[in-house]
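Why does this matter for the project? Reviewers at the last site visit asked to see concrete outputs rather than summary tables. In response, this paragraph embeds two records directly. Each consists of the residue sequence and, immediately after it, the corresponding structure tokens. Nothing has been edited or filtered.
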Amino acid sequence: MLGNGLRRLSIKPILLWASRYYPSIFLNLVYKALSIVSSLTRFISRRGDVHLQRTRDILPTVIDRATSPALGDIALERCEGGHLPSESPGRTTERKRTKTRELELESELRDARRQLVATTNEVQAQQRSKAALETLLSEARTTQEQLLASLSAKTIELKQAQAYQSMVDDIPDDDVVKDVRLVNSFISQIAPNIADDFEPSCGTQQQQDAADEALTRLQDMTAVHQELERMLRGHNHSYESTLAQTALQVAMAGYFHRLASPWSTWTGERTPLLREIYAGIRNHESQSVLGKWRTMAFTHLRSGGHDHTDDINRAVSELLDLLRDVLLACRIGGAQEETRYYIQQQYGGELKDVVVRALELRRIIGERVVSRDLDVVLAPSSSFDPGEVEDEWASPRDRGGLTSSGQAVFCTTGLGLVKEEHRSGSAGGGEGYRVYKVILVKPKVVLESAIEGLIAGLEAHTDADA
């Protein structure tokens, strides 16, 4: 019965405890428990079955005490303290190796973690350094681009400055003289032709208002002076067209002077300001600087909105109006538009050619000549000076003008050309600049004495007719 009771006892708690703690301690306790059971069996066998039930009640309590955690802890303490039997040497060595390996792995893990942290910090530092280098590289590229742009701009400026400093003119004086004489030749040829064409109709205009209006427009343009206007108004030109021819020459000479001289206001009101500035710096700069400044100023002035074709058309139109008004002042018959249309049909092509030549003269004198100053001029004074002007009506025996010297000049009928050179120093070797003036083409003039003789002939013919 006792054996059956022991077989029914569960040894699971004992096995669990043994797997958890040292087996040697458990075996020792089991041996003791079996000894107790054996003693109890002998006791029961002697006493009988009376005490069987009591044994069954005591046995679980004994086993529970033997398998309790507290008892296991006590046993473990005793084992560690050397009170219980130790494990086998092989298992102890294995546990030590395992423990050692665990410690090594833990050490390697800690080292790996420290290395990972160090590597992470190093990567982050390299990334920060890379970002800083990229920023520096971007700034360097921006600076390089700015420097290249500045270098390109400076290169362009240097080339322009070199072109400005090396600017020389390739226009000889003879070419300019030829152009001025060509304009004068046109004036001296076309004026008598137009006067001859309208000579039969001069003085036939019955309406004085048309002549008065034409004279007013001529006064506004200052094309002819007042004395010539009075002569045009007061004489019949159907008998002699010389006075009308002279008026046409005077009007065309004045107009082509405005057209060919770069210092005139024909292209705009800014020219007087340029001339004032130019005159202000003449005493402080050399001729090369003056010429370069002038050429640049007039080049930019012309490129500021002036179209060459428009300038030509405008000049031709103004010239046709001017010639028409001179003829109307001579009281020719016919309507104003008919007179203008006739001149345009008969002389329009020639007028355009000479206008183109005069505008080209303006561009050459103002924009291309650097080493000296050239300008188209009219008669400079009211008295005749054979060194400065030329008497158009002088006799072949007096082409030098000696007999006419000192006489009063009545009007200018042809253009002159003057060259001025600005040189440093004076004749005595002093400092500063002097202007050396040379007349290349003398302006053509008509003397008052010649006009008076012409008027006297007209009046005598008028009296004879009367």
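We now turn to the second protein, recorded in exactly the same manner.
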Amino acid sequence: MLVAFYITGHGFGHATRSSEVIHALLRDGHRVFVVASPHLAKSFIINDLLEAGAEVRESHFESNFVQTDPVVINRTASFKSLRDMIANDVPRILEQEIKWLKSVDPAIVCLDSPFLPARAAKRAGYKAIYVTNFTFDSIFTYIAPPADKEVQADLEFVASCYRDADFLLRLPGHIVMPAFTRPEHKVDFSMLPPNTSPSQPTRRHIQLPLVVRQPRHGLDVHATFNIPRDQKILLVSFGGHSLTANTWKTEELLPPGWVGLVSDREMPVDDHRLIFFEMSSVFVPDLLSGGVDAVLGKCGYGMCAEVVAAGLPFIYVPRPDFAEEHGLVRMLDDYGVAIRMEQTDFYGGVWKHKVEEVWTLREQLMVKKGYAMTNGNGNGMNGDYAIANGDGVYKSKCVRPRLGRKMIHDNGAEVASEMLVRIANEGLDWTTGYESPESPVDTVTVNV
């Protein structure tokens, strides 16, 4: 079976999670054609898919989503880019994508989460299936000026493209997606954050378990970065965005006994407690499972999912313009441990109190959940945790503790692959009444 898989270039989180679904399809013997922007197509994530056997096609099919820095959207530039594309490029893009789809004749078109390819798929006569936790009409509408009729017209066009899709495989951390909301339930975007609950009525969807990259190789972070064994490690990462702040107050930066591992080589900060590296030089799940103790960053799906899967506490810097954040914070509250650090504290280098707070919370939850350390110092490869019975006897061993309120299933990539194949082969009738593999049980699971 041939799958055409369109991936947006707006943030690496889409590519990292899509790569897991694509790997699952490839393992099952299917052929996958990845369609991505030239920038994304040259990334280390897509190169990894090429090595696994995927085929890649570069194409321009979306506008630019412009950010001023890792946490702020440039609204004016983003809406201008959208307006220019809709006014000037849509007919050409549709023609090129329809022509290409017909030339390769896929069994199904999968999308995460560009809008225009859904219209191209419909006009070419192919089923279009989204695998995502949000659609960009939600993101744009959340920050759009309601009185600007031109912007509102553009957003209606975007929404109409999403409505051309046939089905949604919905990821955890989702927010309201209007194209998949029943028509009788009007979405009030002025109240978008409170409307992010899982009970939001939707049509044409299946809820997936967590789609997340898993560790591939053993990595000893302390040894790799020459960090003393008695030091705890705070990973600082903002999804590939450069951190240009130079006002960090080093005396308030980290608690004693902590080292910051920062994924940015361009930072102008000279502090022996900070170690800078290039994120593309390591596989992040290996990093998270290899000795990192806590993470500081923004709420993007990739990092949130991988932090949750690794059982690590997370400190997030809010991005008030990003509607997606509300769904991801809910996911972190359900499945992990997370607290908020204000932007002023982050850019001012006042991290110490939040690092201490999240570590204390993590230790309290460890006791509450019954975890105990069986050897080493608890840093990834150097120690193991176990859940203990009341008499102190260990009942199951795990590499990382699960500290959230709900059970976590992280086999979403395999489930998504199975769903895509079944939809391609059997259509959509079987999805009515399908029971989601996502468990509602409030408990904890361990890797035995």
